[in-house]
Amino acid sequence: MRFRAKMIDIGCFNHFTRVVNTISKLTKTCTLRLTTDKLYFILSDKVANGGVSMWCELSQGNFFDEFQLEGVSTEHNEIYMDLAAENLSRALKTAHNAKSLKIKLTNKHCPCITVAVELPSLSRVSRVVTHDIPVGVIPRKLWNDFKEPSVPDFDVSIYLPPLKTMKNVVERMKNLSNFLVLEANLNGEMNLKIETDLVSVTTHFKDLGNPSWGDNGSQDSTQDRDPETMMDVKVDIRKLLQFLAGQQVNPSKVICNIVNKRIVHFILLHEDVSLQYFIPAHE
């Protein structure tokens, strides 16, 4: 197996760093999947067991000037590895004013992702800062554990308000309860609700808009429903806040899909990055 890539555009450095910083806020460890044309950051905790799940997809051509990959075989030209997202984020912070950034798979006592950052220098000799990030290469027989999640057969799909606004609301609610009810309808309305024995608080959002999903059939069951009818899901407020507070990608749109009483599915859309995040309902 071989992998090496190079990046020289400062805008690409900064954007890639923001993506990795976001991943590191969402999870301590994740799986990095490399293919010839894409990178994937995957967290596949079992939603059925109460864990969150994440799928982040990047087109390598929008970030890297050079990208070479030789996977486990000609038939399966991919590499899967586990890594600590925080370590990669920390390594990229040194690339703020870099002339170039090189990433490659190496073997230094153990498999590593080696990040080499070439920094500006007043002399003719360039300064290179190198970070070796240990990884665990995942064997081919386990790859099926990391399939792309399917969009759930949701009851409501709605665009979210600005994430910063929503984060500020949820942060205040966190002081009142450990759980939050997120509800929305097909009329572009969404509510965030806290209900305890001592207090009941609701924040209302209107005119958010509902995405059209075309012919995929996900909303077939909603056609005859009153658009005012609310569908809801009760979630751990810390998991929701972790998602809202970690975003540095500056997405153009964020879609929220609700499966009534079961799961909430977020999709962040950027021109060259998409991130999906699943939070299961709290029983």
Automatic annotation (TrEMBL):
Q: Which Pfam families match?
A: Hus1
Top-rank taxon: Eukaryota
* Keywords per UniProt: Cytoplasm, DNA damage, Nucleus
Q: Which GO terms describe its cellular component?
A: checkpoint clamp complex; cytosol; nucleolus; site of double-strand break
Instruction: Tell me where in or outside the cell this protein is found.
Output: Cytoplasm, Cytosol; Nucleus
InterPro entries (UniProt xref): DNA_clamp_sf, HUS1, HUS1/Mec3
Q: Using the UniProt record, give the first listed, main subcellular location.
A: cytoplasm
Which biological processes are named by the entry's GO terms? double-strand break repair via homologous recombination; meiotic DNA integrity checkpoint signaling; mitotic DNA replication checkpoint signaling; mitotic intra-S DNA damage checkpoint signaling; nucleotide-excision repair; response to radiation; telomere maintenance
Q: What PANTHER family is this protein classified in?
A: CHECKPOINT PROTEIN, MITOTIC AND DNA DAMAGE CHECKPOINT PROTEIN HUS1
Cited function: Component of the 9-1-1 cell-cycle checkpoint response complex that plays a major role in DNA repair. The 9-1-1 complex is recruited to DNA lesion upon damage by the RAD17-replication factor C (RFC) clamp loader complex. Acts then as a sliding clamp platform on DNA for several proteins involved in long-patch base excision repair (LP-BER).
According to the record's subunit comment, the protein's assembly and interactions are: Component of the toroidal 9-1-1 (RAD9-RAD1-HUS1) complex, composed of RAD9A, RAD1 and HUS1. The 9-1-1 complex associates with LIG1, POLB, FEN1, RAD17, HDAC1, RPA1 and RPA2. The 9-1-1 complex associates with the RAD17-RFC complex. HUS1 interacts with POLB, HDAC1, FEN1, PCNA and RAD9B. HUS1 does not interact with RAD17. Interacts with DNAJC7.
Q: Which family does it belong to?
A: Belongs to the HUS1 family.
- Protein name as catalogued: Checkpoint protein
**What is this protein's gene name?**
HUS1
